[in-house]
Amino acid sequence: MTEAIQGASPGAFLVATILAGGLILGALYLFQRSLRHARLMEDLPTSRIRSAAQGYVELEGRGKMMPGEPILSPLSCTPCLWWEYRITETQHNNNRSGPRVRTVDRGRSDDLFLLDDFTGECVIDPEGASIRPNSRHKWHGNTRWPKTGPRHNLFSLFAQYHYEERLLMPGSALYTIGYFRTQRAMVGHFDEKAELNELMREWKQDQALLQKRFDINKDGRIDATEWEAARRVALKQVRRDLIDHNMPPGLHVLSRPLDGRPFMISGVPQARLINRYRLLTVGSLVCFLGLIGTLVWAISIRANAI
To answer: How confident is the model at residue 187 (pLDDT cuts 50, 70, 90)?
Structure first.
């Protein structure tokens, strides 16, 4: 190693030093972030929905679906509170570089759901949240979009496509930190179905808008799958309008803080989550100190060789 450092060209040594500096900064950022999260969860007291103060709070309870149409995961059609999926394709090349894996599709839910802590209910708006799921599905297939739900088959391991879903399940225990507010205004009766139909009617009249936003395969028309995707987006918009303008007094909402503080939704218990962040804090600190020591050693070896 010493001979390699001494014999490296000035350009190669400079590049290696810059890369090491980037790794050091990354380890330092990870250390600060994980330590901040661990301390936040330890110091912030758990509030009850019925008596929570307006502002930044920690809540715990059970996840529930909103009234109306259920949330279904796109790949397996599993009823859930939140979903995230990824589809990857394995491409086998006729060279020594081996197979190449690329992501061909991915998505993430931002549908609203409820948190119930037995003192009240709070609407959770997951947009922008850091989410730890409590259920995962992984399976394989030979079509870009799965024809069946999760299944385990030894021969399917050699299939071309890999499907993965990460879910938050209804009825599961949830731990959350975010900005808590209680709606105070009431603007008459709100009919979700009527509002959804009206919005879809407006979008249908603007074909240019529909094709720009939802014509995924770019064939110049909106097919049944793309229309259903547009309907899901419209339903999200209607429900957010419902929260922002039309809900009755006393409705509680937890969402992303505007000041940049962490917004977390976890299906993992608080104690286990804190332990994970503490381990990450120690690991990143060890990496930071090790990289610093290695870089100083390499620079000293290089300086003695000049």
So the answer is: very low
